[in-house]
């Protein structure tokens, strides 16, 4: 257990460093990789965005740092307790647990941030020490997974077992894909579209594993997408609303988010955004809505974003700018309930 | 009679006038005053007030004049006094005589004499004292006791008398003041300091203060003198040079003897003296402020004070009368909270307890926006103001409030502001140190957590953090 990549060991080493420093009569300091957007660079080998070399020093002798220093160590302690007991917890649960230890967080976004600090400090994703987001997205399709979590170790589940799909929790995230009859993975933004595709048996027709994203997907979902891609060799297609936000959901799956640039194994660089693209809005004469100020501002931001430097992305941004309109996935229903499945998706997937 | 308008006020004013006389007498002798007020109530409306001091005593040849004639005294010299030429004591004697038909009793002894007791009346019609009896009577030592029998209501005056003595000990903190009622000790105040006030030197009048009345009195003792000699000899700030310039300024014959001046000429002279702008400001040696240390001590001894600050303005002058204003702003649980600071006024070491609303200091106090200095309505803040002057410009004969003289107001406002600034500075300091203590506690708590959770992670005993925290805050203190 001397391997620093072993989560428990990494946490113990952190504690030892802090205690040793205090015994030696100096205030402990920690160096945490800088997660600001200025410190994000594209790593061509990993084909994802990673943190650059810049680091921030947190010094426990600084009155402004000492509180978050204590929060960070408590979070580490909490994580180690989870690991020792083989338990998982959610970000929200972690936030509420803090009170019992006299550790004060202003709100959950503060504790979420400290969890991210811990991740980048010890170089492990929070899922490695058992902390998951509360919200789940879902998966459905012809694939068999083998669980690795204690109590279910070795048991298999076929992901068409429930017509609602299965929630992607800690157990499914760490399960091994065993075999599949599917040929693609189709990730869709909205729950409504996910349900439609199950009902219409589109998964059968397209030989697709369906993944519901539910907006920006949790990391466990992105991780699962990557496993399907890596282990089963399936191409990943992303189907979102036709607006800057939907486009960015796809972008994050493909190249990674700024906030998780310190975590590996979340991106699917080969994934494709099939739409709804600005061109689709024109080509299919979709019913649209006027973009609001927030949408337009988001477009401006994305123009400056490193991840959008590719010509295809620039083309999409230009398209949205010219249209100044946006369309939801559901817009296809103007042509009837099954138009998406019968016409649009076949067009886009072949 | 001013100050004797009703039975309650009569008792209070009698005590006040006699005590002021006694304190002046003691200060003249350079002794630390011990002044005892004895009140004897006979029936519901008859009161005897006896005030005894350890002053110089009154020479026998002056006793009758000193207590038995209205407007006794012919001082031209000016210096800070509590009373005005013993006039107040005579008024008390007169009031007693009118209401009870009893004589004034004076028992006095000087260093050289063995003591005599006088009973005397005032012949009101002719304004002359009439000694009824004199008897040899020894005292414990030099000093004077004066007894006035009067119609008055002590029951209702008692609180005022107590407040008066308490406040007197703020402005005369070198005095020991005792109150006995029907021979039973009721209260004792002071002394709060064993330093007597700096002796004042009497100075000649300043020419700007030369009203017709003063000029007449001064001329009556110098009628032989020619105008120029009269001016240089009788006033301060007039030397030969100034006198020559002054004489050019007014159209009066410098060689004429002042005794031969007509009424018109005297009033012309007065007008010229008061309007000529070539005089230096008056000397201030004749004034005796309490001073920073003594004033802060006496306020602190009389009230429970957690913070106090002292400020002083002057010497300055109004109409040729030099004045100094000094003040203490105090905060403490023993003081009443109010929207503006509670004002305690003193003039020449005499507390002014009534008619505050029209007083120049009250008006100035209200012109200050105290919230600017961080004072809030809930804070028990008081301001003690002491005006020293050779002449106190009272608004009325009751001597309870000071007239709005522009020169005085012009010094009062900056004085208040100065004290306000001193307070807000110290309030910031207090708040900052409270803030620092809170920060230290929060830091220590957070840092104990760092050590505690660090140790839990390392699965070892938590190390002690006290020395590290202490070292950090020591360093910060030194910065």
Task: Report what the structure shows.
Chain A has about 350 residues and is an alpha/beta fold. Chain A is built from 13 helices and 17 strands. Chain A has helices at about 5-25, 65-85, 90-95, 110-120, 170-175, 190-200, 200-205, 220-230, 245-255, 280-285, 295-305, 310-325, 340-350; strands spanning about 30-35, 40-45, 50, 55-60, 90, 130, 140, 145, 155-160, 165, 175-180, 185-190, 210, 235-240, 270-275, 290, 325. In chain A, a hairpin with a 4-residue loop joins strand 2 and strand 3. The termini of chain A are far apart. In chain B, a hairpin with a 2-residue loop joins strand 9 (about 305-320) and strand 10 (about 320-330). Chain B is globular. The model of chain B is unreliable at about 70-75 (pLDDT under 50). Chain B has four domains: about 5-190, Histidine kinase-like ATPase, C-terminal domain (Heat Shock Protein 90, 2-Layer Sandwich); about 205-275, Helicase, Ruva Protein, domain 3; about 290-425, Ribosomal Protein S5, domain 2 (2-Layer Sandwich), CATH 3.30.230.10; about 430-479, no CATH class. In chain B, the strands form two sheets. An eight-stranded mixed sheet of chain B has the order 5-4-3-6-2-1-7-8. A five-stranded mixed sheet of chain B has the order 9-10-13-11-12, sandwiched between helices. The interface between A and B is medium-sized, with 26 and 23 residues.
Determine the N-to-C terminus distance of chain A: 50 Å
Structural class of the helix and strand makeup of chain B? alpha+beta
Instruction: Please outline the major beta sheet of chain B.
Output: 8 strands, mixed
Shape of chain A: globular
CATH superfamily of the largest domain in chain B: Histidine kinase-like ATPase, C-terminal domain
Query: What's the CATH class label of the largest domain in chain B?
Result: Alpha Beta
* Beta-strand residue fraction of chain A: 15-25%
CATH topology of the largest domain in chain B, by name, is Heat Shock Protein 90
Q: Identify the most extensive interface between protein chains.
A: A-B, 26 and 23 residues
CATH architecture of the largest domain in chain A: 3-Layer(aba) Sandwich
Radius of gyration of chain A: 22 Å
Which residue ranges of chain A are poorly predicted, with pLDDT under 50 across at least 5 consecutive positions?
Answer: none
The appropriate CATH architecture of the largest domain in chain B is: 2-Layer Sandwich
Number of domains of chain A: 2
Question: What is the CA-based Rg of chain B, rounded?
Answer: 29 Å
| Intertermini distance of chain B | 66 Å
Beta-strand percentage range of chain B: 15-25%
**What shape does the CA trace of chain B take?**
globular
Number of separate strands of chain A: 17
